[in-house]
């Protein structure tokens, strides 16, 4: 389990360390790796700047260092694209985390759309 704010590059390093440890212990095969990622959905592309500003303001309020600000913001399609580097790094489970004041129904709907887009992009065709 990787905490929120873990960049895709750091996640890649963590996945490698996990693999090395498993190999040294005689374990084979992949090991699931999950990460929490703060997500803010926007209903339309023109709403993305305001959504990004909300997230930045929250990080400022929480005093989160810039290098730990590993969130995603945008429409579900944009969020799915932004998550790809973590998947490429070997993270197998992405746990999208809403902001405290998020509309939970809208958030779950957006997360469902992201999940469908990511499944479709990884489903073998042929």
What is the 3D shape? globular
Structural class: alpha/beta
Total beta strand runs: 3
The percent range for strand residues is 5-15%
Intertermini distance: 34 Å
Mean pLDDT: 89
Low-pLDDT stretches = none
Trace the largest sheet across and list its strands: 2-1-3
Radius of gyration: 16 Å
Number of helices: 4
How helix-rich are the residues, as a percent range? 40-55%
What is the H/E string? Answer: HEHEHEH
Protein name: Luciferase-like domain-containing protein
InterPro entries: Luciferase-like_sf (IPR036661)
Organism: Homoserinibacter gongjuensis
Keywords summarizing the entry:
4 helices, Luciferase-like_sf, 13% strand, Luciferase-like domain-containing protein, alpha/beta, three-stranded parallel β-sheet, 126 residues
Please, could you describe this protein's structure?
The chain is α/β, with parallel strands linked by helices. It has one domain (8-122). Helices cover 51% and strands 13% of the residues. It has four helices and three strands, in the order H-E-H-E-H-E-H. Strands 2-1-3 form a three-stranded parallel beta sheet, with helices on both faces. Helix 2 (48-62) links the parallel strand 1 and strand 2. It is globular. The mean pLDDT is 89.
């Amino acid at each position: 389990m990787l905490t929120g704010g873990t960049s895709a590059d750091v996640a890649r390093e963590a996945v490698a360390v996990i693999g090395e440890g498993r190999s040294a212990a005689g374990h084979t095969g992949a090991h699931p790796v999950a990460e929490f990622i703060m997500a803010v959905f926007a209903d339309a592309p023109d709403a993305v700047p305001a959504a990004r500003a909300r997230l930045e303001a929250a990080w400022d309020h929480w005093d989160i260092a810039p290098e730990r600000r590993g969130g995603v913001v945008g429409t579900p399609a944009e969020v799915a694209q932004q998550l790809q580097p973590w998947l490429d790094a070997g993270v197998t489970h992405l746990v999208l985390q809403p902001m405290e004041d998020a509309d939970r129904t809208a958030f779950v709907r957006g997360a469902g759309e992201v999940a469908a887009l990511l499944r479709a992009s990884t489903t073998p065709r042929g």
